[in-house]
Structure formats: structure tokens, C-alpha cells
Write a structure and sequence with these properties.
- The protein has 289 residues and is an all-alpha fold.
- Among the domains are: 113-224, Up-down Bundle (Receptor-associated Protein), CATH 1.20.81.30; 225-289, no CATH class.
- Helix content is 88%, strand content 0%.
- It has helices spanning 2-52, 59-80, 85-130, 135-145, 150-162, 167-178, 181-196, 200-224, 226-249, 251-259, 261-285.
- Helix 1 (2-52) packs parallel to helix 3.
- The chain is elongated and about 90 Å long.
């Protein structure tokens, strides 16, 4: 009896030491890659939040929040699914991707607003030039009276100009910061006009007509590919819907799928194929004019 207890204690000690060594090795091997990944993500947050969205939010704060969300979702998945390692890893992955997705969504919505306001902005610039204002004064009028977020971009660009940055360089920086082909077309045309001269009002009218036609074609393409995008969204949601239906019909069978090795492999295969299918359809229906 005593020998059996000693053997059992020795086995527990060996298992504990093995788990500790494995965990320490995993931390040692994964620290640098994880650190580099978080630094790249922090650089992305800095570019989007500070440069694109013009928000006064330190990227390190968002990076720390990302880590906290990863830990929280991993802990929730671990608690809800009886300590499943795969579920814990999936929770951590979702926590890592979720803030990035939200920031990308904010950037895309801001870009859509900027592009929808661009034709009106160009017409305002043209009206100001015809009223006797120079280009900088017309830009100041947009920065003062234009809609949000266009006025924020012009205000930021003019602030750089007031601090000594040449207007052409300020426009190039704004074009890079916004990341829109339509704004690049506008600022490139304005830079060319400043170098070669000409009728600025007429130039702005031609730019407005060109951008209006480009946006009309883009809207036409979006209309024609709407069904494909809807298919991609339904494809992404269908496995979760089917899983919920199966859980209502056979709860024990669904729980078995998440508790056995073969079931976990099936779940991971479904998730992988679903992601591939979703990305494939999105690539097909994404057309750049």
C-alpha cells in the first residue's frame, strides 16, 4: 500500500516536472515570435489610429487591450468547453483577430465617408477658386466649413503646411495617409497644376467629373457582385447555424464532437475549409477598378 502511494506520488511528480519543462520550453520558444507579432500589430495600430483615423490614442494601449481580450476569450473558452485545449487556442486567436477587425472596419467606414464627400469637396474648391481665392485659401474654406471627416483631413494637411512643410509634400502625405486612389488623383492633379499652371477651376471640374465616373463604375461593380458577397457571408455563418440546429436535435452528439480526438479533427477541418471558401469567394468578387 505504502509502495503504491509512493509510486503514485513519484508518477505525479514526474508528470508535473514534464509539464513544467514543456510549458517553459513553449514560453522560451514562443516569446520572441509572439513579441515580434505584437510589435507589428502595434505598428499597424499606430498607422491606422494616429495617421489614418487621426485619433489621439496611444497604440500601446490598444496592444495591451488586445492581449487582455486574448486572455479573456481563452479563459472563457477553457471554462465553457471543459478545458479543451483547441477551444482555448481558438479563443485566443479570436481575441487576437477581433481588435484588428474592428480597427479595419473603422478605417474602411472612414474611407467610404471621405470618398463619398470628395466630389462635393472638389466642387467647393472650384467655387472658392472662381471666387478669387488661391488654392490654400480654398483648402482653408474646406477645412473650416467642410463635412466630417473631410475637414479633419484638410485641417491636418494645412497644419503641416503652416509648420513649414511644402504644400506638395503635405498633399503627398495626405494621399498616403488616406490610402484612396481618388484622393491620390486629386492631389496629383493639384501638384501638376502648381508646377505647370493653367486654369485651376477648369482642372478641378475635370477631376470632379473623372472621380464621379470612377465612383459610378465602382457602385455598378458593387451592385453586380452583391450576390457573391452575400454568398460569402452565408457560407461563413452556415457551419455555426448548422451546429446550433444539431445541438437542439442531439446535444450529446455535438458535445462528443468537441470532446473526442476525431471530433476535434473534424471541427478543425470544417473551420479550415470554411475559411478557405470564404476567402476564395471574397477574392473572386473583389474587383479593383
Amino acid at each position: 500500500m505504502i509502495l503504491s502511494e509512493m509510486s503514485h506520488s513519484s508518477q505525479l511528480l514526474v508528470n508535473s516536472v514534464f509539464i513544467f519543462i514543456a510549458a517553459a520550453t513553449a514560453v522560451w520558444l514562443g516569446y520572441n515570435p509572439l513579441r515580434k507579432l505584437l510589435l507589428r500589430r502595434e505598428a499597424f495600430y499606430k498607422h491606422v489610429l494616429c495617421n489614418t483615423l487621426l485619433l489621439e490614442i496611444h497604440p500601446r494601449v490598444v496592444t495591451v487591450l488586445t492581449v487582455m481580450v486574448m486572455i479573456l476569450l481563452a479563459a472563457v473558452a477553457f471554462a465553457l468547453l471543459d478545458g479543451s485545449l483547441i477551444a482555448t487556442l481558438l479563443g485566443a486567436v479570436v481575441g487576437f483577430v477581433l481588435p484588428h477587425t474592428i480597427v479595419n472596419l473603422l478605417r474602411r467606414r472612414r474611407l467610404e465617408k471621405l470618398e463619398s464627400q470628395l466630389v462635393g469637396t472638389i466642387q467647393t474648391l472650384a467655387s472658392g477658386v472662381r471666387a478669387g481665392l488661391n488654392l490654400v485659401q480654398a483648402m482653408e474654406m474646406v477645412a473650416r466649413d467642410g463635412p466630417v471627416p473631410t475637414n479633419q483631413e484638410f485641417r491636418h494637411m494645412l497644419r503641416e503646411y503652416e509648420y513649414g512643410v511644402p504644400l506638395d509634400d503635405a498633399m503627398i502625405k495626405a494621399s498616403t495617409r488616406i490610402g484612396s486612389g481618388d484622393f491620390t488623383l486629386l492631389f496629383t492633379a493639384l501638384e501638376t497644376h502648381r508646377q505647370r499652371g493653367g486654369n485651376l477651376g477648369m482642372t478641378l471640374d475635370r477631376i470632379a467629373d473623372s472621380i464621379r465616373e470612377i465612383q459610378r463604375l465602382e457602385n455598378r461593380v458593387d451592385t453586380l457582385t452583391a450576390q457573391g458577397r452575400a454568398t460569402a457571408r452565408w457560407l461563413g455563418a452556415m457551419p455555426a447555424v448548422v451546429m446550433c440546429i444539431l445541438y437542439l436535435i442531439d446535444p450529446s452528439g455535438v458535445r462528443t464532437m468537441f470532446s473526442t480526438g476525431a471530433g476535434k479533427i473534424i471541427v478543425m477541418t470544417i473551420i479550415g475549409l470554411n475559411i478557405i471558401g470564404f476567402a476564395w469567394i471574397r477574392k473572386i468578387v473583389t474587383i479593383d477598378i
